[in-house]
């Protein structure tokens, strides 16, 4: 029986151009989606854009644009990442301004309210527009939001609706007691520690007069939903919940394995707040949330003022999609923060791709095209245990380390056996050696497929047509 697998990224906020941090998350998710599909699973892969909240409302006004027109413009830029990053053809793209999503968010609200977990009260607190979140004094670093130290906090005093998160301490601890519900393990322990420190109910609405850009609260036209309550609902609204007209919610969420990818700063939102909302609404919790680290540049957080922002679209334009996918998979840690500079990227491109994989493919297929009269027949071989284990543990770098060990070994085999000489003195033995090289290249290509799909396609096409491909990775000076 085919296994159903649901996978989603977080939804990037449309207040800025797509950045390398989200490109990392999208590529990591795509590698997982492609690998699971190659294992024969039925995969539903979701991404999209988060389009409500005060930050977006202000940004649109700053640019003198209608808010919906502004979000349409930026949503199109994020949708373009599908082609730029080589994301799977079956990728689903949801916008939180979609009518169905808004209706789903309102239904989730109604179900949480029916469970007795939503109430209204007056509140005064410090609000970070960057995070679209209220912060406690204990959250602050030098009186500032740790994620946005250059942004002034706003003191807000108004009557809002709250979600009764404090009622879910024991249920959340039970949920988090299962190993594997959060990866890596230390993030699970971090979530448990946060809960044991005490849970406070959190605000889930804003006064409409002060923040008009959002999903309306059911039965109260003076309030709009706090952006996180609205945005988190996308993980199930994309599946057609609550109507489930096509049966995708039942198939992938209820009867499948569910996984969410997110940055390390999202633990409180994804593994605590969202899971409590699901519990309140009587919906199955997420099976696993996978957290990655941040990308820094030159040892510093990326910012326009420092001039160290990395544009993924510019990299793709100059070096190609798979070069970026390769670097993000092999030279960026799956779980920890990693530094990304164009110098490091270019060095890896020339050494590993131009001089490594590209050169190896050219050497082997040049020999094959000259000395073999017909294409070598190749068959699918089961993935090596080391490679398969690395991908099952989301260690993309370890999978590629294994792969590049094979690439180097195959390159060395050519140097040792010298088929280009043997084929002249002993044609049959020489051809046999070349056929072996082609089959080993095909095996490498098989493992490249989920990580560098375009390159994999070009190599297997060259093998099947018995031709040397065009230069896969031209060297950059």
Structure notes:
Helix 14 (342-371) packs across helix 16, helix 15 (385-392) packs antiparallel against helix 16 and helix 17 packs antiparallel against helix 18 (427-448). This protein has 477 residues and is an alpha/beta fold. It has two domains: 4-292, HUPs (Rossmann fold); 342-465, Isoleucyl-tRNA Synthetase, Domain 1, CATH 1.10.730. It is built from 19 helices and 16 strands. The protein is 49% helix and 16% strand. A six-stranded parallel beta sheet has the order 3-2-1-12-13-7, with helices on both faces. The chain is elongated and about 90 Å long. The longest helix has 30 residues, at 342-371.
Describe the oligomeric state of these chains in a short phrase. single chain
Tell me the structural class: alpha/beta
- Mean pLDDT level: 94
Q: Poorly predicted ranges (pLDDT <50, ≥5 residues)?
A: none
User: CATH class of the largest domain, please?
Assistant: Alpha Beta
Can you tag this structure with a few keywords?
single chain, 477 residues, alpha/beta, Rossmann fold, Isoleucyl-tRNA Synthetase, Domain 1, 6-stranded parallel beta sheet, 4-stranded antiparallel beta sheet, 19 helices
């Amino acid at each position: 029986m085919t296994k159903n697998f649901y996978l989603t990224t977080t939804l990037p906020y449309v207040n800025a151009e797509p950045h390398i941090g989200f490109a990392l998350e999208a590529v990591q998710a795509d590698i997982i989606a492609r690998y699971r599909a190659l294992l024969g699973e039925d995969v539903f892969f979701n991404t999209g854009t988060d389009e409500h909240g005060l930050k977006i409302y202000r940004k649109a006004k700053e640019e003198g644009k209608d808010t919906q027109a502004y979000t349409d413009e930026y949503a199109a830029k994020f949708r373009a990442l599908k082609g730029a990053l080589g994301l799977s053809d079956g990728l689903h793209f949801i916008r939180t301004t979609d009518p169905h999503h808004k209706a789903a968010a309102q239904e989730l609200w109604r179900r949480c309210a029916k469970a007795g977990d939503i109430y209204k009260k007056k509140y005064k607190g410090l609000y970070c527009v960057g995070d679209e979140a209220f912060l406690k004094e204990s959250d602050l670093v030098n009186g500032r939001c740790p994620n946005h130290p250059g942004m002034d906090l706003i003191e807000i005093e108004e009557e809002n609706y709250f979600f009764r998160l404090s009622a879910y301490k024991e249920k959340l601890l039970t949920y988090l007691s299962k190993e594997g519900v959060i990866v890596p393990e230390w993030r699970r322990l971090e979530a448990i520690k946060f809960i044991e420190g005490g849970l406070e109910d959190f605000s889930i609405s804003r006064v409409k007069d002060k923040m008009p850009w959002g999903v309306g609260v059911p039965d109260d036209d003076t309030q709009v939903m706090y952006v996180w309550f609205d945005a988190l609902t996308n993980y199930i609204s994309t599946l057609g919940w609550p109507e489930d007209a096509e049966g995708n919610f039942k198939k992938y969420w209820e009867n499948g394995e569910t996984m969410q990818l997110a940055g390390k700063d999202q633990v409180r939102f994804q593994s605590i707040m969202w899971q409590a909302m699901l519990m309140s609404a009587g919906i199955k919790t997420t099976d696993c949330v996978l957290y990655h680290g941040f990308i820094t540049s030159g040892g510093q957080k990326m910012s326009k003022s420092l001039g160290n922002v990395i544009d993924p679209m510019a990299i793709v334009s100059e070096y190609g999609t798979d070069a970026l996918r390769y670097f993000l998979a092999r030279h960026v840690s799956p779980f920890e923060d990693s530094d990304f500079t164009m110098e490091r990227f270019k060095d890896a491109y020339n050494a590993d791709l131009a001089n490594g994989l590209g050169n190896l493919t050219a050497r082997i297929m040049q020999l094959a095209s000259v000395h073999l009269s017909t294409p070598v027949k190749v068959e699918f071989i089961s993935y090596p245990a080391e490679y398969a284990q690395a991908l099952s543990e989301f260690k993309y770098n370890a999978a590629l380390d294994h792969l590049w060990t094979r690439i180097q070994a195959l390159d060395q085999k050519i140097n040792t056996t010298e088929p280009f000489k043997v084929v002249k003195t002993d044609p049959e033995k020489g051809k046999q050696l070349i056929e072996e090289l082609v089959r080993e290249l095909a095996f490498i290509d098989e493992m490249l497929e989920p990580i560098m799909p375009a390159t994999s396609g070009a190599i297997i096409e060259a093998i099947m047509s018995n031709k040397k491909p065009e230069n896969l990775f031209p060297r950059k000076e």
